[in-house]
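Suppose a colleague, Dr. K., hands you the sequence of a protein chain of 299 amino acids and asks what its three-dimensional shape might be. Before reaching for any lab equipment, you can write down a predicted structure in token form. Begin with the sequence itself:
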Amino acid sequence: MTTTTLRPPVRPAAKAPRDAHQADRLWKATPLTWVGLVLGVILSLFPFYWMIVIASRTNDAANSWPPPFLPGGKLGENIQRVLENGDANIVKGLMNSFLVSGTITIATVFFGSLAGFAFAKLRFRGKNAMLLVILASMMVPIQLGVLPLYILMAELDWLNTMPSVTVPFLIGGFGIFMMRQYAEQAVPNELIEAARVDGCSTWRVYWHVVVPALRPAAAVLGLLTFMEQWNQFFWPFVVLADPANPTVQISLRSLNTAYFADNSQIFAGTLIATLPLFIVFVLFGRQIIGGIMEGAVKS
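The predicted structure, expressed as tokens, is then:
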């Protein structure tokens, strides 16, 4: 009688995917990629470096040929001259710009997220028509509304005051549309329904469910809004005729006169006006990236 020995089935060795090598080559940076990245970084940083070079030189050296490519030793002196320039009043301009930009940023993020949540998740009559009107408002340039808006500011007696450069920009169509698109994907309907079952009102759903989910988009919108309002020149130039109450961009314009251009002082003032934007980006840039990564992991 013969005995039969049972052997475990032999499994074929796992084959590596055909395109594994191709995928590895796809994600591996080539020397040409590094050259492009380095060139992009140089082109991006060179204007800031050139600003520091001219701001640290005398006006004669700034206008010389060939131009200097190394920083000088006059940066502190030029900054002091800018701060003491009574025509520019740059300290007042910095304070006004920070107040205006901060107020508009907070209002834009709040109202934009609130309206975006309503357009994305709530049902009400006329929703599509109202959204279409908001989108149409984004196509109208601000220059077309300058005259009626200026008349309105004059009727309200807001000329040469901060409300004239703040109130018209507290909410914009871009913020609403951006928050609406993000809320459509980032806030599940099941989560809102669960909050409703637990007895949450619409306001509590927005504050406790929607706001945490919209944090990445709110951070990006806030940073873009702050930068846009900080660099705003046209409308403040129209309504702020009083040189004693300028924004920072109006102060920078006062440094450049029609008779004499002190480039070292102008670039020093530009450096002062750029530093707040750099600080804001450093403080909130990490939160923006962290929020985006958190949202990606959750999704």
